[in-house]
Amino acid sequence: MATGTSGGLLDKRDPHAQSVFKHEILKQYMSRFIAMPGKSARDNRVVILDGFAGSGRYGDGSAGSAEHILRATRRFASTRTAVSFFTEKDRKNFASLQPVVQEYAEQGLDAQALFGPVQQHLDTVIAASDGVPLFLFLDPCGAGLPFKQLTHVLGSQRRATKPPTEALINFSADLSRRMAGAVEKGHTDQALMDETCGGTWWRDIAAEVRRNSKSPDFREVVEAVVQEYARLLGEATGMLSATVPVRKRLHHAQPIYHMVFFTRSPYGLWVFGDSVGRAKQVWLKHLGVLEDDECVDQDTLFPVAETFKSIIDGQEQEARRTVTANLQRLLEEHNSFKVVDRTTEIFGKAYGSATETIVHQCLKELQTAGKLEVLVSHKRWRERVIARPR
User: Fold this and answer.
1) Which structural domain range is residue 230 located in?
2) Residue 293 placed within a domain
3) Can you list the alpha helix ranges (DSSP code H) found in the chain?
4) Quick one: 189 and 325 in the same domain?
5) What dihedral angle (degrees, nearest 10) is formed by the CA atoms of 346, 169, 133, 354?
6) What is the pLDDT of residues 272-331, one digit of tens each?
């Protein structure tokens, strides 16, 4: 039975290590969702659902996902109307969540804590979001909402491009590993995974990857399954998707889960990519202060934070090289294009590392070098139409 990852599955040395990246993504993107779609929405109204809200706040007083969302809505309280719902089915967690939500409600925010599984409250949330933007944050510990139910919500009830609907879903890598390992050992009754994935297709993918893989672990299975899940759910709902692996530590080869983002707008993909790039820098800086991190040589003469700063700098340089190469290829392949319309191709393998600032720098450098011409100008690079020089 899934509970939210804010509910207690945490690293003993650093209780928030595996959540820092995820929460920073949420913080970065939540503010932009409220600000951007909310600007043109009816009554500047947006609706947000945290479907596995956990306790809302950790025992040491630091914010969980629910409080990060509440803080974002409070920042925009004077210009936006954000209606937020927080569902939690664990009684102990709900007993902690409710006063956190009430604390912000008393400050004038439209926020509700709802007891019970998220499925029980979806109709309420959908009704509240009629005609306005909706953001779903689904962060279970284990299996999430069934594929069929997600396709109904995202693909039927919220099928239209406008008002926008977006979702950020935790897809458990640990669950994929366990289920694939069980099937490999002959334990074929894995109905929970079948329900989560919307069929048995994941079994065939797992078997094929294992046959062709030289790796003794299930990392390639996990990646193949989550990518196909994102593709199928996107196809069923008419949405674009992006997947971001989340690890406890930088040197861990296998993620503990992926955050899978769904949107119908290339702007959503662009802004989410920038949010993830910024969040990753925060996460790396957080790791830099963990003296017990195994990937750092304990005999080094340099402070851990300096070591991680060099890692951040190195990843930025690699992202810049990747984005530049992608832009040059696109300029060769197309007569002209609007930058934001090629988001996934521009970011490429740097999606999750490259920020909007890095992309802007790459575009400016190509323009300065005479390798890029702006056909339609705009104050934002993502809005510009660019081409090869004539």
Assistant:
1) 3-288
2) no
3) 17-40, 65-75, 91-105, 122-128, 147-152, 173-184, 191-197, 201-212, 219-237, 266-288, 304-333, 343-347, 356-368
4) no
5) -20
6) 999 999 998 888 877 765 544 444 444 444 445 556 577 778 889 999 999 999 999 999
The whole-number average pLDDT for the span 218-225 is 85
Would you state the torsion angle of the CA atoms of residues 44, 45, 46, 51, taken in this order, to the nearest 10 degrees? 160
Please tell me whether residues 243 and 374 are part of one structural domain. no
Q: Is the same domain home to 263 and 347?
A: no
Cis (ω within 30 of 0) for the bond into 163? Answer: yes
pTM for this entry: 0.89
* 296 occurs within a structural domain: no
Say how far apart CA 139 and CA 6 lie, in whole Å.
8
Are residues 38 and 139 both part of a single domain? yes
Asked whether residue 155 is domain-assigned, the answer is yes
Q: Is 351 exposed, middle or buried (0-12, 13-18, 19+ CB in 10 A)?
A: buried
pLDDT digits (tens, 9 = 90+) for 340-355: 999 999 999 999 899 9
Structure confidence by residue, pLDDT tens digits, 34-91: 999 999 999 999 999 999 999 999 888 889 999 999 999 999 999 999 999 999 999 9
Whole-angstrom Cα distance, residue 133 to residue 135?
A: 7
pLDDT at 185 over 80: no
> Does residue 81 lie in a domain region?
yes
The torsion defined by the Cα of 229, 231, 236 and 237, in degrees rounded to 10, comes to 100
Q: Do 251 and 380 fall within a single domain? A: no
Number of structural domains found in the chain = 2
Q: Do 262 and 157 have their domain in common?
A: yes
User: What is the rounded distance in angstroms from the CA atom of residue 271 to the CA atom of residue 291?
Assistant: 33
CB of 170 within 8 A of CB of 144? yes
Instruction: Say whether both 282 and 313 belong to one domain.
Output: no
Residue with tokens 């009816």: 42
Question: Are residues 273 and 340 located together in one domain of the fold?
Answer: no
Residue pLDDT, tens place only, 223-273: 899 999 999 999 999 999 999 988 776 655 678 888 999 999 999 999 999
Strand 81-88 versus strand 110-115 pairing type = parallel
